[in-house]
Amino acid sequence: MRSVRARAALGATVVVALALAAAGLAVLLVLRANLTDQAGLQAEVAAREVAGQLALNVPYDELKTGDEEEHPVQVTDEDGRVVAVSKDLEAISGTGTDRVTPEPGASAGGDREDDGEDRDDDDDGAGGADPARGEVSTDDPDFTNGTATVDGDSADYRFASVEATNEAGLTLTVHAGAPLAAEQRAVASVRGAMLAGLPVVLLVVAGVTWLVTRRALRPVEGIRREMAAITASEDLSRRVPEPGSRDEIARLARTTNETLTALEASVDRQRRFVADASHELRSPIASLRTQLEVGAAHPELLDVPGAVADTVRLQELAAGLLLLARLDAGERPGAARLDLGALVHEEVSQRTGDRIPVTVSVPAGGGFEVSGSRAQLARVLGNLLDNAERHARSAVAVAVRAEGGGVAVEVTDDGDGVPGAERERIFERFVRLDDARTRDEGGAGLGLAIARDVAVRHGGRLTVTDAGERGARFTLWLPDAR
Fold first, then answer.
1. What residue ranges do the domains of the chain occupy?
2. Which SS3 state, helix, strand or coil, does residue 1 take?
3. Residue 221: CB partners within 8 Å, gap ≥ 6?
4. CA 47 to centroid of chain Cα atoms
5. What is the mean pLDDT of residues 71-98?
6. CB 385 within 8 A of CB 423
7. What is the CATH code of the structural domain delimited by 236-331?
8. How confident is the model at residue 380 (pLDDT cuts 50, 70, 90)?
């Protein structure tokens, strides 16, 4: 069952089968209970008719039991002995006794002449009161299920037991039955219809579920085929088809296309990065090779300071590329706690070769603790100061302050500033706004990109704004370590 359609069809069929089975069982139980109650009511009516005759002291052999096959009757006395049965009753069960022949010695009914004469004498002595009358119990009868054989035919019956007291005060119990054949036929018919219709219903459910699921999953198959084609062709510019519906599959298609767009942008950015890195590395390597070849041929012409400068620039570029590679690989910053104000003082004090002195403003008392990598944050401060020194005319300033649950470091210069349209672009890799500037003067365009990546991975941010009428203000914000 690797197909979603098959699993969905099977699941729906099983659920419907269980539901129909439960509903069918409930219907059969209710139907059987209702028909059984109707048979019990018929048995009760027949039993009360016979009990009424017994209350009127009708002799046992003159009892009218109606249709013996429809309503077999058995009468027992207080001791459980059979005193009367309906005609042609050959066997019975479910009434407490299976005897169908009146037992010798049982109380006789209707033969009450002596008792009647004595009662007449007593009544005369009492002033002519009405003679005693028998009665039928008004309590709910007891119901049981059993069988009876009438004139050779055996069947199941619902028996009702009703008590009656005759004029002599003798309590008799009348057991009358009503056939359950109609109930059994009805239940069997309904059960047969359900069993016959269940496979048809399940086939319809399975077929409809299969077709509906197939139609619903058709866009998914289109997405799969297109993704397979993209994987085979490595063409990330292709997109999967988006269905016109607004369901989960349409959202899946849109999310897939968004993922492909992000992946294409990432791959393009990686390709540009590799191309730009190769281009940036080519210049110092070529320059260094040329100087070394000239020095090898003419030692007196070797430009040692130039070779050292190219080597340093090459080393810095390699270090920057290595740091970006580690950041792209998801390297997490350290968790050391450090005072950002002290780090600013330390970095500025080590910059002895700057052409413009740096002004530092850090409030006394400290309390500017952040959590992260000391080396990476020092690299961010160094890159921001290098950028300010490169563009400033006469002033570079660094200020530290608490802001919004964190620590903000502002690096300000009085240069030409950054145009509003370029304030996000300058944080891209290998971007230099002044293309006419030489690489030695303008750098490789990695400093600000490294600074922002490090800030983001420390849970902070790096932004640029205007510094008054002239210059640029770079603001590094990091969350407070506390």
1. 4-187, 236-331, 332-479
2. coil
3. none
4. 61
5. 90
6. no
7. 1.10.287.130
8. very high
